Amino acid sequence: MLSGMPATPPTSRGVPDTALIEPMMAPDLDEVLAVESRSFADPWPRNVFEAELRHDWSYSYVLRPSLGASVIGHAVIWIVADEVQLLHIAVDPEWRGRGFGSALMARLFEQARHSKAARITLEVRRSNRAALKLYLSLGFQSVGLRPRYYASDGEDAIVMDCVLNDESE
Ligand SMILES: CC(C)(COP(=O)(O)OP(=O)(O)OC[C@H]1O[C@@H](n2cnc3c(N)ncnc32)[C@H](O)[C@@H]1OP(=O)(O)O)[C@@H](O)C(=O)NCCC(=O)NCCS
Question: Does 165 or 84 have the greater pLDDT score?
């Protein structure tokens, strides 16, 4: 069985018990786009999220602080062969620093374990200190650099990888 255990297992400390992380559905998209536009200089447009909802290999999630509340975060991963690729994660600026990003990451690790993935990979802007710190705290390591990866401004991407342990070995 895959343990999915990074160096430090992700926790959802500080997140209220009422918080919900569920698969993203088409009716969530207006709220997702609102978080998205407040989170990125180059936000994903609606049609990109719609495409993700159609792909068999794509898993998208929304986070609410309680049942019936508006979406305050979302994440998108691809599961291809034995690898999980983290494409996108955001928490609304007003809700950051309270453990919600870690809670979303914990859900992604859970999906990775369920899918028997061997690793999780991602790309992150070199200047994105908050995200880099989050990923490093979860056991991700820098494994490469993609120079001028982001077309909008030519910033480099750091490639990160978290190998999941196999407890059965
Ligand atoms: C990255 C992001 C999802 C983190 O969400 P969050 O809800 O603030 O995360 P958490 O509260 O769970 O914080 C987890 C850890 O991240 C790091 N972190 C979060 N905000 C930080 C900040 N402003 N500066 C430095 N480190 C920060 C810390 O290590 C923190 O752990 P700690 O509080 O124990 O020190 C959020 O900042 C975000 O949406 N950013 C904009 C979108 C984005 O850049 N996405 C990532 C693209 S690769």
Answer: 84
